[in-house]
Predict the 3D structure of the following.
Amino acid sequence: MPKKTPLSSVETDIAKRRKAQVLDAAIECFRSRGFHQASMSQISAAAGMSSGHIYHYFKSKEDIVAGIVERGQEELSLPIAQAKKMPAGTDVASIFVAAVDEAVALHKDISFAALTMEILAEAGRNPKIADIVQRNSASLHEDLLDLFEDKSHKNRARLEICAALMEGISVRALRNPRLDADLDLDMLRDTMRHVLSST
Amino acid sequence: MPKKTPLSSVETDIAKRRKAQVLDAAIECFRSRGFHQASMSQISAAAGMSSGHIYHYFKSKEDIVAGIVERGQEELSLPIAQAKKMPAGTDVASIFVAAVDEAVALHKDISFAALTMEILAEAGRNPKIADIVQRNSASLHEDLLDLFEDKSHKNRARLEICAALMEGISVRALRNPRLDADLDLDMLRDTMRHVLSST
Amino acid sequence: MPKKTPLSSVETDIAKRRKAQVLDAAIECFRSRGFHQASMSQISAAAGMSSGHIYHYFKSKEDIVAGIVERGQEELSLPIAQAKKMPAGTDVASIFVAAVDEAVALHKDISFAALTMEILAEAGRNPKIADIVQRNSASLHEDLLDLFEDKSHKNRARLEICAALMEGISVRALRNPRLDADLDLDMLRDTMRHVLSST
Amino acid sequence: MPKKTPLSSVETDIAKRRKAQVLDAAIECFRSRGFHQASMSQISAAAGMSSGHIYHYFKSKEDIVAGIVERGQEELSLPIAQAKKMPAGTDVASIFVAAVDEAVALHKDISFAALTMEILAEAGRNPKIADIVQRNSASLHEDLLDLFEDKSHKNRARLEICAALMEGISVRALRNPRLDADLDLDMLRDTMRHVLSST
DNA sequence: TATGAATGAGTCTTCATTCAT
DNA sequence: TATGAATGAAGACTCATTCAT
């Protein structure tokens, strides 16, 4: 937070805001149409900007997709945020269990789930996207592992199962419109505690 | 050209074979390019059939997508097949646990996972596809519930968690290229048993 | 000229006619606008064919340009045609000199000259085009050399000078609108004879 | 910032330098990409100037093309420069023949040849450019005719043939990558002397 | 049943040009 | 004088779909 922001930095700020503006518009379009169905002209309309001008900030449509995937899913690091609110020394299981409610709320959101699936499908065939997705996920998991006593293989395995469970919620949300009624949060919490605290 | 079969039925058979031929080709293309990236001419090439002729069997490309989603993922009913091999009276947990290996092998296959995500993403925005996906899933779950003692809400909840866990594996496969090393199958089996047999 | 043309050959013929149709239209457009100014939609209009359909015959606009350059300038082989009309044994100089009138008429045509310059300019920066142009020219010169007693370096040099002289006429036609008045055909003929028969 | 020079004149000087700067950059770009392939932003980058600012000096891209053609090819007046080095009274043929080496070196340069063809092609379809090209050529030829005893039709004709021969070298350079080996400078000089001194 | 020629709307992208600063 | 953000009209090319054969 410099007092006198240098000019170049101001310009960068404007550019950043513009890029964010495009990314926001793009997310909106991608959510409702998908990456390949959303047209640049729809995105530009949503961004309140001429389609040509978008190319000052992104060199291609794929670049926008990459930008979205990159900025991507910071919401996923929820348990980490949660951990910081807990009294120091709280055990991992409790931290994760405490985060379940919010995490489920996020993952079962159809709009969130659909964009996630879109990204994953793209990652399945576009190496550039796959790379971003994988690096994102890896760095998130490293952060989460810091909450554990050690980064042993066992803890990695626990994390994988918890992640699968949670991300699986997004899949279920798309497959089962009655998920809210069918899902038992207590059971879910219990399962996570089991995974994280079994010896 | 069997002598006895009535003509109309022969045509139906041929037609069915042709449709299957197209669907097979389409799956192949969709896996590697995605629904909207795969072109009708690629599909027709893969199907060994002129693109025009495909329109005798499917009235549009969306129809092919629907056809694929419909026929979709019979592989998912794995535990049911498994149940039939088990001695009558085996408990549900054991049936599911016995199916874990095969189920994981299926779900962590990148090609399977990518097509699944493609379908789910499409379901997230195309109501016609959503409908098929949801009916498929509902009917599968009804079948699986038959393995339980009753169709109580608790058992539905158990099934949801198991499903999330398993489908989450597909997500993880796309997010973590080292999933094979990180995943602990014993832990997974233990988790499923816990979910299915806790009181 | 086979009596019973096989089907495939008929189809090829249609395709060939279509391609020629496109090339004709393209030449027309390229002459009046230049390669990069002529749009595919102008070409398609001139060809009486949808722009999309052109891509059944040419995989890109550059391919059309290449096609034109390739088919290119058969008119250039004029002296060879001329040579065949002369009594056997006529000396080279006389053959060339006899061809001067027609050759000049061709080269000083503005429309011919402009397209030639367009092609040469493109050859100056597009290696694919350069290659075609150079192979065309090489093969023409080999044919012309056959008219000489031998393919000695001296004869190659003579040919180069004659070629420069003749192609230079196209340049002059574009530079000097009064070329017709200024050019002395007798002097030109004399020059060529000098080049070709000096010892 | 010289003290004595009046302001208006200073501006003009700066402006002239700026225009030249743009033209230099444009030539560079046009040589490698062609008139219509080179973009204003490439030119502005090469000129070290914002693209918007170029419009203070040239009202359109076509104007830059015109500027280049105008300033154009002073190198062509080579024999005149040559003539000034020769003892007064040297005959025309000798002046031209003496200039052959340098002239050929210039004309066979691919980069020079390509830009020349580009200009001529443009002249073939753009009347404004044609006009400049033709006035340039006319004025050059008037200057060259001053070297002759008189401006008779015969001498004009000689000049045309010499010009065609020399400009034809540029065409040959583009058509024949082995021109250096094939061309015989002595033969060329002999030809020019023949053209210029025959009675 | 089967083909593939044909269409034309739609895609992403580029670019000359303008204008607020 | 100088910038570069911004525009929007093209441009080349693709593709689902139709239809004559």
